[in-house]
Every structure is written in C-alpha cells, then in structure tokens.
C-alpha cells in the first residue's frame, strides 16, 4: 500500500541561488566559474586579519529585483548579521548573512500542476556570501584523511529564498522549483546554471496522517543541486519517513545529506552541538535603507515574467504544451517572440521553432546562443513557405542549410534553385507522364479509391525533385482523371 | 553561580578552545565574577530603548560591481600553515 | 637637547635646513633604540633596513630640492596590529607570530605616501586586549618613568616608545582606552578620533564597533599633523565617514576664553587616586585662569559603561578572532587528528589567557539563551550612554576627566584579577561606546608618575579638543618633562 494512502507530505524548500554579478559580494574578486584554485581571492575574501567588507551595489539591486518578481515585500530597512560556525570552507568562521531583517519579506509563486494552479508562499529571501569548495583526498568526506580548500567561491553572492511549507506532493515541489528558476532567469537575477552548482536546494520534509492538521517532525536534506536529485531525494525520504512512522517510531529532527550514487539520504554525523549560530549584527557593514523610489525604479525594469508570457502565448492560440516548452527555455521564447514580430502566425511558427529548430539544436548539442540563424532569418523562411515559394518539405532542407551556413533562406533557395514549380504548363507535362505510367492507380482513383491520389502526387513530386507546388499538382491530377 | 562547569565546556566547544582542567576551573570562576558584575545592567530599565549596533548614522555604503585584481595564488597561500598544489590543506573533516 | 627628543615639527625644520639628513636622523633613532630598548622593550620588531631605505629616498628628494611634507623623513612606529605589507604583523600573539600581510593598512599606506620612515612595530597586549601590555606574548613593555611599572595598554609599546624617545610618534588603536590610558601613564599626547574618522582597514580587529586608530605624539601640534595624514574617508572601510577632513592645525590656537568645560562627577569616584585628583584640581584652576568656564555635570549612566563594554567587546571579539583556526594563515598546532581537534588545539596553544577569557565571555554572551540578557541589553545601555553625552554636549563644548583613576600600576598588581583590570578603564570606555573623540595630554605628576588630562568632545569635533589641549600645553611645561633612562 502506497504511503500516500496514509500520509500527506509537507514540504518547504530553501533555495540558494548565485546572483549574476561580475564581482563578489564584499570584494572586487571575479565570480567567474572555473578559475584555477585560489586565484579569484584577495585578503578580503580570504578573511585575512585586518580586512573589511564593502557591499556590492549590484547584489542589492538583484535581490530587490528577485523579491519583486516573487511578489515579496521589500524591506524599508535591512541589515547584515554574522552567522558564527566553524567550517574550513568558511575563512572567517562566520558567514555574513541576514538574520532578522532580510531584504525580502513575504511573497508568493504561482504554480500549475495537473491538480490546477496553487500559490506557494515565500517566507523571505536574504543576501549572503557563499563558502569555499572542499576537495577530499578520498572518495567521500568520510573516507578522506585530508581535504583541500579552494576559496574561489568564497564570497560569491547568494540569495537564499525560503518557501513556506506549502507543497503537498512531489510534482508540486518540482513545479515550484521550475517556476522559481524560470523567474530568476527571466529577471536575469541569476544564470541558474544548475550544472555549475549555482543553484542549490535544501529540502524540508515531514509527513502527517491524512486529514491531520498539525505538522509532523521534519528532516532537512541539504545541498541538492538538480531537479532530479530533489525528486529522487523526496521519493526516498517520503518512503523512509513513512516506514519509520508505520513501525510506530518517530522521525528524528535532523539534517541529512543526499548520496547521489546510492540514491539515499543519510543523517549527517554531528560530532557535537545542536547548532548555536550566535547571530549578531555585522559591525563592519552599515544598514540598508531602501527608499520607495529605488524599488519603483527596479520594478519599472522588470521584464515580462514567465507566467505573464505563458498567458500571452495561450491568447495567441498556442497549446498548453507548446507554450510551456517555449516559456521553460527563455532564450527560445525570446527567439520565438523576435521571429513572431516579422511573421505573426504564432501557431505555424511555434511548430517550426519547437519542432525542427529545437531538434537541430538538440542534435548538435547547441544552445540557442550557438545557433547561426537569426530570428529574422527564421521569419523569412516562414514567409517563403507561407507564400508558396517553397514547400514545407523543402523548407526543412533550407532550415538545415541555414543552420550550417547562417545564410539567408532566400539566398539558399536561389543558389540551389529550390523554388517551387508553380507553372501549370511545366507541371502538366509531368502530370500526363505520371498518369500514363500508372494506369492502375488511375483506375483505382476512378473507382473511388481516394488514397490513390496520394501515390500519384508522390510520383509527380519525385519527378520534380520535390519542387512541384503540391496544391497545384493535386488539382491538375484530379482535372486530368475526371 | 550563573555559569556551571558544563556551560564553560559547552562554550569552549562552540569557541573551539581546548581547555585544560585548571583553565576550565579558572574560567568558570572568572566568568562568574565578571557576569555577576555585569548583572548591574539588570538594575537598569531599558524598556523602549533601541539597541545601538552602530554609533554612526551611516547607511547604504555600496561599492560598484567592478572587478579588482585578485592576489596571485602564491601570495594567497604564502601564510598558509599547510598548502599543496595551490590548495590549503586541512586534516580530515569527519 | 638630543635629536631623538624633538618633535616632528622641529625635525622637519632641521631636515629642510639640511642640519640633519633623514638617514642620520634614522640612525640616531636606531642608536637610541639600541641603548634604551633593553630597559623599555617597546618594540616587537625593528625594521632598520626598511627605515634606512625610506630615509635615503627622502634624502634624495631633499637633494633634488623638492618641497618636504610635514611628516616626510620623520621616524615613526606602528602598533603591531596595523598591517604592513611584507613585514610581520603579529598582534603580539603566538597565533600570528609568522603572519606577513600581503597588503598595507590604509593608515600605513597614507603614512608611506607622506614619506614617513617606519622604524618598526610596537608591542601591545595580545590582540589589543588588556590595559598593561602584560598580555603580550613576547615580553612586557616597561614604563619609561618607572621600569617596575606598566606602560598601560593595550598600546603600551607605542606610548612607551614615544615617551622614551625611541620614536618621534606612533600610531595606536583604542577600543576602550587603549591609546589614552597608556599615553597618560607614559606622559605623552594620545588621541582617540571619532569612530569613522580614521579608516580601520588593515587594523586587526578586536571589537569592530569600538576600534579606532589614533596618533600618540610628544605634543599636540604633532598630533594634529598626524591626523591630517591618516584621517579622512576610505572606500575600503564601510564605517568610514565621507566628511571633509579639516586641516587640524588650524585649531591650534592659544585661546579658550568662554569655552564651556563640564566635569562629569561620575568620573572622579571612589577609586580615584588622590594624586590624580590633585592634578585634575590644579588643571581645572589653570583652565579657569585661561578663561574657560568649568562646571560639574553628570553622565548618569556611567557606571553601566564597563559592564556594557565587557559584553559588547568580547562578543565582537569572539567572532572577529574565529578566523584564527590554523587553516589559511597563522599558527597551526601539531597533532590534530581531525579538523575540530586541530582547530581547538591551535587556538588553545596560539592564544594567551586574556584572549581566551574574552572569547569565552563573548561566546557565552551571544549564545541563544543569553543574547537578550547580555548582548542586546548591553547595546541598549550603549544607547543610554550615548544619550548622556548628547545631553551634556548641549551644555558643554568639552568634558574633562582623568584618563585613568590611578597612575601607572606595578607589574602583576592587577593581572591576577581580570575584573580589577577592567575597572581601570572606567574613564575611557564610555567614549568608545558613544563613538566620540577624546584626547589625553600630560597634566602633572603623582609622585614621579605622569597623570593625563582627558578631554572628550562631540563627534567629529577633534578641532575643539586640539584647541583646548593646545592652549593647556602652551601654558604649562608638563609635556616637556622627560623620564630619566640614564642616557644622554
């Protein structure tokens, strides 16, 4: 019997997202990913004796922008605090973060699942610095005799977005995460490069008896870095908690870690204290006073958000599926919009963009930024097909050629002489030849077998190397046979 | 006594200080005498008084998002007690 | 008079008139250090080679007929918690015994630019925690006026070196009186500037919301010249105030007629030494004779300043000193089995008892169950103390008190009783809590021991402090007295 019959899951997620700044939060070191170890560091981010932090304006700007996109209240007064704990990836042994006065207060995100739409509450979002990276000498942290520390990431600005425990199913959690990442990408608050670890999720999970009102005891599984890890972790952890409860036990309130290889969560061995972070106001940074005018100015720069774009696409007549595919990939949707400005037939366009074009990108493992085709060229291709200059089938070949060479479609059509044959006289000769060569099909057609015309059209197209105007060929065949 | 010996041991653990037996005894006694003195503050009614974290009325001190040169790796590591291959090296973590 | 006894202003004239070269001047101080240092022990490190190089550059500029800045070619010393690129900066702690900063403190950088000659780094209480310099990991510094007594602290080295003519001036840091009390104990001039007037970048932090760097000098004029060099906005310190730094020498006028001086009665309480009280009484007479209007006043929350300070400062210290873990820099203990073990041993071996005591106290004060009762309460008291000053400055231009309730005490006299040591900061600590400036100047003697007069001013009103200090100095001879170190 599945656990869902007895229990309801209650889940909230803390998302740590790297903000898209050029420099770190408190010093001028680059945030660029992938530098040689300990080369994007300076006395400030190494926490050397005597150094002081100075806050990066862009971090505040992006945090406010994210807050607005997540419908959060933006604090009029905000400050930084020190979170004190010892860990070798933290050079100062405190993390400069925000405690009781975060920059963003309550907000919400609207998600859509098969069950309909739902609002997931945002508790808060705050700015903080990232820690460094530990490389272990052995295969895992447990089996290593020593570890190596790279502080390049130390001080990279993060926004920690804390959701309310509003999610009740794994699809809801995934929909929330997808929506959140889309919003952050749309607002250019973050690149959200999950593969580079620029987004990390801590998942709080508890189960309660179906129909119960209170919350059960929760576990927090830290540092998940992909949607699939979150899904698998939740699948595992719900089963595990259900098992504990079924056995009459109590879930232990604890921090757990996800073992990607084994697909299980493990309790973090705590050698010591229940954490006491000893937060206090950061004396080396002064508070932020955020005037309404600053917030309004940022609000005025907010782009169209994914939910707005989705409803616009639906109004254009796109299917839920097509609209979803576009919105999920902002660069693709941007491409679509630019092409749409030159070729305003949304439904035709979307088939080509999410069909052949996306297939080409995927086959070449390219992102849209790698493509040599501009949206304007794409629109021109659509126009050539629409006006009957080339057939759809030829269009696919032209698209491939465009993809390879970046040439304008009209040039390719001209160079390769691909224009459709729409001259009646030329086609009539070929039609007569085909009819003469296929008396059986002609008989079938005349006997009422409508399907036979398809074969005959195919023969004419073959003879014209696909360039015959299909509508015209069809009409001529019918005229000759009746 | 406000602070017990286990309190002192707990605080020493939070502060990552390995204390000797005599130190634990000494700090238990001294911290108590200091905190007894600090209890003077309890006499003072501070209801409605806002705390001062900064004496300055400064706010919004911000830096532009412009890259500055970082340290060369060698200089970053020159004070490290133990370094290898451009990394800081530390003993086992768990 | 020996050349090492002269002020920066006097030496500047000698350099400009080519009566002495910068290298000769530096050598004279090296010689003075060689002779006196075994008695005083003010230096942690003497940077002879660097000093001579810096001096030679100044001589080249003199030879080239260049105009000399007021501090150019003048020897000075830095408290060993001020970062110096390429020169060990140890905070007088085993923890940083080999730490070589890859950067200069902003004050170091500004002095370098001004052509100052750095003689070396000066002794202090470990991490600036203490009032006697007995907490130095290396050695205690002795008071030049009585070698059996402490020079005060934590800037004991900077104050003693100026008093013993081992440097022309020095920079110290002041978190609860660490410039003013040793300056008073050693009979020299020490200023704690307004919080935010001098950049803290490169000052190894003790308690960030209280720390300020300031000059220690032989007279008030030198002090103002040094402030002209080191004060002013610095983008590397978020708590540095972007204000128009005045030329502080413009306040050096011999006139305090009508100046309103308040004497808070709480600063002359039970524990005040009769000799100190006598000096203050006479000083009040002098100030009145010079036309100042001196009246008693009250700062009612004064008695809460010490307990508030000894919660706030240790709390900040417990966090500021967490970075000393044997990973990125500084001392690392041998034999740590895992990271927690290594860090705990490193800190046990690297820190002295006073530092550990304050880390313990501060950690405790911040733990979740006690935060409101201790740290938050202390911050509220800080608001009340600041309010006391705001009210007093509505009526008075400056406030006056002794710099410390007693003159310099003997070695070991207070080191076994931390609380007694803390209570000796009673006159200086409230100033740091309020963030205001204060200056101490020599005002007489209790027996053979110097006593300092302590003037407190409004935020960013160092000018009035310089004016009253200068006027007092111009009309007295106390600053000219020198300890007898059996040389010359």
Task: Describe this structure as you would to a colleague.
- The complex is a heterotrimer of chains A (482), B (94) and C (488).
- With 482 residues, chain A is α+β, with helices and mostly antiparallel strands.
- Chain A has three domains: 3-297, no CATH class; 311-415, no CATH class; 424-481, Arc Repressor Mutant, subunit A, CATH 1.10.10.410.
- In chain A, 39% of the residues lie in helices and 19% in strands.
- Chain A contains 15 helices and 16 strands.
- In chain A, the strands form four sheets. Chain A has an eight-stranded mixed β-sheet with strand order 6-7-10-1-11-12-13-14.
- In chain A, strand 12, helix 3 (227-246) and strand 13 form a beta-alpha-beta unit.
- In chain A, helix 2 (170-186) runs antiparallel to helix 3 (227-246) and helix 7 (330-342) crosses helix 8 (346-363).
- Chain A starts with 6 loop residues before the first strand and ends with a helix.
- The model of chain A has no long low-confidence stretch (mean pLDDT 93).
- With 94 residues, chain B is an alpha+beta fold.
- Chain B has a domain at 1-43: Glu-tRNAGln amidotransferase C subunit, N-terminal domain (Histone, subunit A), CATH 1.10.20.
- In chain B, strand 2 and strand 3 (87-91) form a beta hairpin.
- The longest helix of chain B has 18 residues, at 21-38.
- Chain C is α/β, with parallel strands linked by helices and 488 residues long.
- Chain C has helices at residues 8-16, 22-40, 48-63, 106-113, 156-163, 180-186, 220-230, 274-289, 305-320, 339-350, 353-366, 372-395, 418-423, 429-434, 462-474, and strands spanning 43-46, 75-79, 117-122, 169-174, 189-192, 212-217, 260-264, 293-297, 398-402, 438-446, 449-457.
- Chain C has an eleven-stranded mixed β-sheet, with helices on both faces.
- The longest helix of chain C is centred in the C-terminal third of the chain and has 24 residues, at 372-395.
- The radius of gyration of chain C is 21 Å and the shape is globular.
- The termini of chain C are close together.
- Chains in contact: A-B, A-C, B-C.
- The interface between A and C is large, with 32 and 45 residues.
